Structure formats: structure tokens, C-alpha cells
Amino acid sequence: MTIALITGASRGIGKATALLLAQQGMRVVVNYHRDRQAAQTVVEEITRAGGEAIALQADVSDEQQVVAMFTTIDQSWGPVNVLVNNAGILSTQCRVENLTAERINRVLSTNVTGYFLCCREAVKRMSTEHGGSGGAIVNVSSVAARLGSPGEYVDYAASKGAVDTLTIGLSLEVAAQGIRVNGVRPGFIYTDMHASGGEPGRVDRVAPAIPMRRGGQPEEVAQAIAWLVSDNASYVTGSFIDLAGGK
Fold first, then answer.
1. Mean pLDDT, the chain, as a whole number?
2. Annotated catalytic residue within 115, 156, 190, 235
């Protein structure tokens, strides 16, 4: 049975993805950083529907915690076949001239280092060169990587630019080892993340400037992720799907 790890799966896009992959018959690991109750609620929703899921705490920016999480999955169910790198943070809206090194490094450590660490551990288990049976990785980026998020989150946008580069480079590195690596770039999606940036109603504010005139739902992003990790996308690697309503 396919074992899928979704980081940052207690809410938003991660939660929607966990629910959908479980619905499609995968065993799902719901990773969370702080909100154990929210993660447990996702697990309970999956099990009530007849699926299998466990919640595992780990700060993906911490190398030891990432290694421990993958080891626990190995011992509980076996090696991961699917990785969805989704855990990410941003800080309150701020211009570059007011950024601090502490803030920049905090964003990069989760959004970039965390993705690298999880990819590293997944490749060690999936790669046919290491005795694995292959697998699929999807990195959740953002259209911010293209748009730059001026006046708001250039540091976050830069972290997602790094994620795009990781996706391209890793996809080429492991293409002959049975591993596909792709990315999704969500745009303005209705999630709690905007509250972290100090503007809970941000999606509604920018909606008129989106060609489709509306924000997106986490479930719409989850559908793209589910396709990329499925056998239906068996010849797709190093690619990106933008989910931004035309933005």
C-alpha cells in the first residue's frame, strides 16, 4: 500500500491533500509542528471514512526531528512512497527595507531547508539505487515565486523561488532512480496562512485583480497534487502546475 507523508497537514492545503490521498486508498502520515489537536482531528476524519492515518510531530527545519519522523514511519508502516512538501511559514507583511536577518533565516529554514531535508530522507528510501521501489515527490511552491510579493512577503517569495529550483534540480538528479519530482504553485487560496501575515481577508481583497475574479480553495490544489503523485502522471517530472486563477 502507498504510504504518503504530507508535511504541515493539520490545516489548509496540507489537510485537504491528506483527506484526498486517504480517500484514494493511501496510508497517510499527517505531519504537524505545533497543533496536535488539529492534526488528530484530520486523522480522525480519515479513519471515520475508513482510511488509515497517523499524526507525527516534527519541525521540518530541524534535521534531527526530520530524521526521527522518517524513522518512525519506517518502523510503523515501512518506507514512504509519496512525499508532499507543504509545511511553510510567512511573517507579517513587510517591505525588504525593514526585514531582519532573524526573520529571513526563520522563513528560509522552514520553507527551504525543511524541503531539502524531507526530500533527502525520501530519496534515500524511494531510490531504486538504494533498494527502493521508486516514488513521487510534490513540492508546494507559490505563484509568489513568479510575482515576487512586493510590499508584502519578498522573503517568502524568495523561499518559494528556491523551492522551484530544488524541484527542477532534484527531478533531474533522480529521474533514472524511479522518482518523479514536481511542484504546484498555488496563488491566492483561502487558508489560515493569510492571518499569519496579518491580513485574514487578503484573498477577498485581491480577488478582483485575479482573472477568474475569485480566490481558490485548498481542495482545488489538493486535486492537482493527487494527480501528480498518481500513476496518471507517470511521465511527468520536473514540471509545475500553477493554481492561481490565471494570475
1. 96
2. 156
pLDDT band at 196 (very low <50, low <70, confident <90, very high): low
Average pLDDT of span 127-139: 97
In this structure, what are the phi and psi dihedrals at residue 81, rounded to the nearest 5 degrees? -105, -25
Q: How far apart are CA 69 and CA 199, in angstroms?
A: 33
CATH code, residues 3-243: 3.40.50.720
Yes or no: say if 123 and 179 are a contact pair by the CB < 8 Å rule: yes
The residues spanned by each domain of the chain are: 3-243
Alpha helices in the chain (DSSP H): 12-23, 36-48, 63-76, 101-108, 114-126, 144-147, 154-174, 193-196, 202-206, 218-229
Rg over alpha carbons for the chain, rounded to the nearest Å, is 17
Reported as a single tens digit per residue, the pLDDT across 16-62 is: 999 999 999 999 999 999 999 999 999 999 999 999 999 999 999 99
Asked whether 243 and 140 are in contact (CB, 8 A), the reply is: no
Q: Say which amino acid occupies 130.
A: H
Whole-Å CA distances, 137 to 62, 96, 126, 152: 20, 32, 10, 29
Q: Of the candidates 165, 229, 245, which has an alpha carbon nearest to the alpha carbon of residue 2?
A: 229
User: What gap in Å lies between CA 183 and CA 240, rounded to an integer?
Assistant: 5
pTM assigned to the model: 0.96
Active site residue 156: yes
Q: Are 142 and 157 in contact (CB under 8 A)?
A: yes
